[in-house]
Amino acid sequence: MTSRELFVDTLCLEQTRFVPLMLRDLTLALDVLNVPTDKVFGNEYDSKLSADCVLALQKMMGSDVTMGCIFSYGLEAFGGVTKYPADGIPYVSGNPLADPEKVDVLDPSSIVADLCIGMRRSSEIVRERRPDLGLCINVPGPMTMAGFARGVETFMMDLLTDPGLSEKIVRFSTDAISHEMKYMCQGIADAVFFASATDNPDMIGDEEYLAHSVPCLRRLSNEAHEEGYLSIYHPHGVFSTDDRLDLLDESIRTGIDGFQFSEGNEPSGITESTDGRCAVLGGVNAYSTLLLGPDKRIIRDTNRFLNDLADHNYIMTCSCSVNRGLSLNNLKVMSDTLHEFNEGRS
Amino acid sequence: MRLIHFAGMPGSGKTQIIKSSGVLSSDCAVILNNEGSSSLLDGMCGHIDVFPFKSPCARVRQYQFRIDLILDKFEPAVMVTEPPGNCMEVSSPMINSLYVSKKGAIDFAPLFSVIDGATILTTGASKRTTDGLRVFNMIDESDVVVVSKSDLLNDDERSRISELVVSLNEDATVVFTSVVTGEGLDTIKELALGDREYYRPLVN
After folding, report:
1. For residue B10, what pLDDT band results from cuts at 50, 70 and 90?
2. Is residue B37 part of a domain?
3. Is the pLDDT confidence value at B36 over 90?
4. For chain B, is the Cβ count within 10 Å smaller at the N or the C terminus?
């Protein structure tokens, strides 16, 4: 069984003997080849260099899935500003919908521009070189894209004070994600990953979550299936508690194939709802255990997740994306622990 | 520079304790999570900044960015910070990232979490409820659990709170505080400005 088959089978709720490893690497791979961030995100996105980095990290960690490219959100296409510090992580410094009137003027499909084209090319190269690996494409979730586009704090205020405007921004954002997803995934991806930090009931409240995140996610997940790939959803916030069961249930009912819980959740509270309905992803805390070590703590926490979740159609990730600056040695300890659990398979 | 972080849910009394505990001075900078709170500290410190609402991923980098900015610009001897936005999430991700990159340049005070005593008694720390899980996670990551509004607690309630905290986090120091009676405020100052260091999130 190839890594790709293991990944897809797990997402399709087939019985599998091993737990696949998926590192949601957005920029960490740059550290493996010691490449400055602004070298990939130069005047022109360097697809080949991006693919080289992605595959170098995969080789080092023995992961079953890659995200295909060094990632950024591509808001430049709408007039936004992203900064690319040489030794840092890309960040949005100018929100394209800071002026709300632009939501009526901008075309969501224009997100498919230079950066998107470059990232797609990187994923194509990765697919060509390693057809045996799973390929999962990262895009933002609905409220997360809205937050990037408008500015999180401003968007939170819009939700409270101007429902008409926030509705328009969410619609625009979901349309943009749809275009980005279809372009990036077509013909190469096994799955799309909705990175959804702001689709977070702790931030936006339960009602807004059900009113906005859920229907938009349903639309995107349906589109993914129509296009021939699976979908994974990764919201932040608490979903494992009794009073959030309905939110988790509604999220799963959108048709997603995998649910990744964030740090702060109790895994058993998640699997009570996901069992038999979708795969579960999540794992070692990226901001404590993986960041700080030591090895003993990483091994302890990795085994804890494996023992709790291996029988629940589990894909091992860490709690969030991995980005440059994270210790490669610590991540290797985590992946080695998984490979040992998988009877040496890597 | 010594960094002192006060976590705690909205309404728990973080800013009041920062104001009343004597940790502020003219050589101190403060990052608050709420524009409205800044007037409480007018004239009590060298510089006040407000941390905007950020997504859980972005806040880690933004926190570092703001600390760097204030360090460069004002060179304070002490910086007191609150978590951003709605304060519903744990604070150790932000401090840990800073710890990894700046442990030579910054002296990290123990992590304080301010929890209203009545909240602990009513919600408990059950992993089955969202409010309970928040209390659980907050106690679990803290070096010092500051039980605020202690003037409203009787002896039995204090015992129950202490037992609960210790059962979840054997490393934690529990300090009952009241800005009405002044209880515990000197202890907070001593822990914040003394030799005690950031510890629990590094080993938990």
Report:
1. confident
2. yes
3. no
4. C
Query: For the domain bounded by A3-341, which CATH number is listed?
Result: 3.20.20.210
Find, among B62, B56, B74, the residue nearest to A93 by Cα: B62
Element (H, E) at B112: strand B112-116
Distance from CA of B82 to the nearest CA of A (A): 17
Give the amino acid at B146.
V
Residues 140-199 of A with CB under 8 A from B: 144, 147, 152-153, 156, 197-198
Enter the tokens of residue B13: 């009394």
Backbone phi, psi, residue A340, to 5°: -65, -40
Chain B residues closer than 8 Å to A147 by CB: 55
Q: Please give the distance of CA B45 from its chain centroid, rounded to a whole number.
A: 17
CB-count exposure of residue B97 (10 Å: 0-12, 13-18, 19+): buried
Query: Residue B191 belongs to a domain with what CATH number?
Result: 3.40.50.300
Please tell me the distance from the alpha carbon of residue A161 to that of residue A153, in angstroms, as a whole number: 12
- Secondary structure element (H or E) that encloses residue A8, with its range: helix A3-11
Q: How far apart are CA A58 and CA A151, in angstroms?
A: 33
A306 close to A316: Cβ distance less than 8 angstroms: yes
Q: What residue numbers bound the domain in which B6 lies?
A: 2-199
In whole angstroms, what is the distance from residue B132 CA to residue A241 CA? 9
Q: Phi/psi zone of residue A15: left (φ > 0), alpha (ψ -120 to 50 degrees), beta?
A: beta
Beta pairing partners, B52 = none
